[in-house]
Each structure stands twice: as structure tokens, then as C-alpha cells.
Amino acid sequence: MANTDSNAFQAADFVSKAAHEQSQSLLFSVLPGEIRNQIWSYALADYQDETQVYDDATCYKRPEYLAPRKTDTVLLRTCKRIYQEAWFLPWTHAEQIFYLTGTDRRPLRTTTVRDMQRTLLTISKTQTMPIIQHVRVFAQLYLLENGTKLQDILNLSFFYPKSITITIRHTDWWFWESDNNLHFDATWVDFCRFPNSLTELRVAFESLERKKDQIDDVVNQAIRGWTFRCKDDTELSAKDCKPEIMKWSGNATWGGRRWVRDETGPNKLDYYVSTAIWRPVSSTSDNENGTPRTYVTEGRRFPNLDATGYAQLDDQIPWVPTSVMRNANMAPDAPTRDVRRLLEESSDEEGEERFRESDDDSEQDDIASEDEDL
User: Fold this and answer.
1) How many CA atoms are closer than 13 Å to the CA of 65, on its beta-carbon side?
2) Which residues lie below 8 Å from residue 98, measured CB to CB, with a gap of 6+?
3) Which residues touch 90 (CB under 8 Å, ≥6 apart)?
4) Burial class of residue 18, CB neighbours in 10 A (0-12, 13-18, 19+)
5) Residues 108 and 60 sit within 8 Å (Cβ to Cβ)
6) For bias kind Basic and acidic residues, which ranges apply (predicted)?
7) How confident is the model over 121-139, as pLDDT tens digits?
């Protein structure tokens, strides 16, 4: 979404100018606007740019996020009348993605709140306020749980999303490195107020396949115990929600470490994702003025989510520095047992020192990334 504010500014200026009616074209003289809009939507759909595929050794490369997305806008350059009808579709139909994460857990180029606000303000000058179809937020818990960073997004002016998905990845949970049981503080549930345009709020809970039972546990707790609110106090409920389940496999290497503890194959991790959906609810009776009566609960405090009593893995070698593997001329996808043996056999002082240095470097990188201003 680079330079979206600049693009929107140019669009706002161009849309306001007169255009030829194009009555000689069957597109405009025969087809109704609804059909034309479907054609424009198909032609302007975004896709993954396979020339810029993300590195496998990252925590943000995943299904449907293998590379940055782009849109071929050649259609908009064929005719001013088409441009005036469809100029905003590449923006509204593309998924708008935010990362509430450290810098090492997101792609190099991402949309910031400031970028998005500039674009929205510019679009508002055209007197066209298209609804955004979908917003995705990838969030580490330390930046999500108190709600302030997410509310910065939700408070954007002229921000009208239909659907928001908040994704908690395996590496976003507290102390996943130590294989802690899953914990999710609920402060943000009561703190955040969502746009009134919202028709669904989706929260995707992800962890390793072997922690499937913990994910199912916390998702069921969230469905039963969490209710979200829009700014007009309409409540969003997940009552009777049947979670959507997805499974996928990815690389076991990230942040200069290969996580052999969790591997299901050489350099392979299996993931389990359960997505719960909250939708607006209203009572069957209306207020006296005819508007739907909404549920409002005052002074509430929602329960934290805790998966308790599950066994933790006590592995003496949870991960192996990739630098140690490179120094031993070991292939990135070497069998797990060989990678483990590499450290087990490195009992000499040089090997131990090399391991400690790699560990210290990784920890410093983690601290530096968390201190970055989002």
C-alpha cells in the first residue's frame, strides 16, 4: 500500500472532472451499473506478486500471505468514464493489512495508521466514501491486550470496514518460546469500540498442531465469555458460532533459529488455526422510534482466556542457531536428529561459546525489535 495517499490525491482530482458519456459503448448503454461493477471488480482484483516472494525463514510468510499483493490497474487507464466508476475498487476490494508487531515479525513495507488516515482523508474529498471490504490485523499480544494500538486503527476518520480479522499467530502468544500454556488477557475486549459499519469481527487463534486442544479450549472460552461493542453500543456476539478450522505446514526456521523442539519433519512445523466470528446482535423487539434495541452491559469485565493443566515440553534443545548449522556446513533442511546431534556433540568450549553468542545475539535482536516505534 505504498504511496496510497499520493494515488488517492491524484484520483480525487481526476474524478471531479467531466467525462464523456460513452453512450456508443454497450458497456454503458446496455449493461446496468451493477453488472459493470462486477466486471470492474474482477478485472481489478488484487493478487500476490510472485516476483517478491517472502523469505521462508520468517514468521509472516503463510497461506495467502506468501508475497506482497498488487493490482493491475490498466483498465482504469482505458477510459475516464470507467475510471470515475471504478477508481476506488482496487483500494476497497484489497485487504487492508496492519501489523501490531515488532519489526522482525512483519514485512519490510506495511501500511501504518498514518498512511491509512492520509488516504482516507484524501478520498473523503471526492464525496465518495467506499466501504472497505476487509481489514486484517496481525497482532502480538503485548501490543494488542491493552487495546490502545488497535483502537488507534479503529478511530481512523472515514474508516468503514465491513469485516475485520485479528490474527494471533503461534509466535504472537506469551512465552511460546518456553512452550507455556496459552494465555490471553481480555482488557482489550472491554476497551475497544469497533466501527458501526462492521458486519463481522473474526479472531483467528493459531498455534502448533500439537497444541490443538489448547486452541480449542481458549476459543470455546472466548465464544462463551467475550462480547465486543461497536461505537453505537451495538454488541457483537459469537453465540452459536461454529469455529472455522484451518491447518497448514510451514518452515521451522525463524529469527536465526531452527525450532527442532516443535518439528514434525525436517525444518517443518504443523499449525492449527481456529477462527471464531462475532456478529452484531439485537433483540426481537424495537425501541419506540423503530430502531433495533441493542444489548448493552455496563460495568463488565470479561474473563481472560487460559489453557491450564496442559503438559509442557521440557526439551533441553528447543532450538538450534542457524549460524551453528552453517559453520558445520549442514543443510538448512537436514534431518532433525542430525541437527540435535550437532549441539549434543559440541561439548567443547568453542562449541559452547559459539552457541551462547548466537543466543545472546538473538535475544538482543528481539529486544531491539520490540523497542521500535510502530
Assistant:
1) 20
2) 110, 111, 112, 113, 116, 135, 136, 137, 138, 153
3) 44, 46, 71, 73, 76
4) exposed
5) no
6) 335-344
7) 888 887 677 789 999 999 9
